[in-house]
Amino acid sequence: MTDILVKNVKNVQNKIIASTPAGKQPATLVAVTKYVDAGMIRQLHALGINDFGENRPDVFLEKYHALYDIRDELHWHFIGNLQRRPVKKIINKIDYLHSLDRLSLAEEIQKRADHRIDTFLEINVSGESSKSGFQLDKLSETVEKLANYDKLHIIGLMTMASKTATDDELHCYFEQLHFAQTAIQQKQYTHAPCKELSMGMSRDYHIACKEGASYVRVGTALFKDL
Ligand SMILES: *Cc1c(COP(=O)(O)O)cnc(C)c1O
User: How far is the CA of 145 from the centre of ligand 1 (A)?
Assistant: First the structure.
């Protein structure tokens, strides 16, 4: 175990706590391990981290099998863009899907999942045409349509902020996502309790925590200087 890894993990955990509003539960740290191998995931697990995020189906499967002996202790989060074809290979092995970004993906999951999948709806808050995700102004009708897919359990909303956003813009995007999440939650849908917010990456998780994130997805900050 390297001292640097221990220090990075502590720094991130401390910054999450320091950025959480008084009286609120700190966000769960999802360690994004797409840059590192299964051995590094074991080291993080030894440091008390149980939540891991991967963004590519094949790489996820490789690590899932490499860590099969401790699978009961790990929560796997799939955070990347997901095509229809690999859905059947991964959907029953993950614990959370953060990136439901279109209805055709919901259809494929409905066919392939053998239980309800805890899912975040990915929202394109900034509205850039190059980004995936549902539009905020279509959110209520999207959530209503998803009632037809009983394999999906919509536990929250997720967003990926643009790399060029200023701190003020980031606050504004995360606040908008929080506002939208609360509005859906208040409707008390059984298929979409929508209590969670997955937002914040290495560059901006401190801002996301201030705006109410319940899951932050952090990679680079954990592995720098290693
Ligand atoms: C890679 C990735 C992250 C983590 O990004 P870092 O900047 O390395 O912390 C978070 N979310 C998604 C969807 C990603 O693909």
Answer: 28
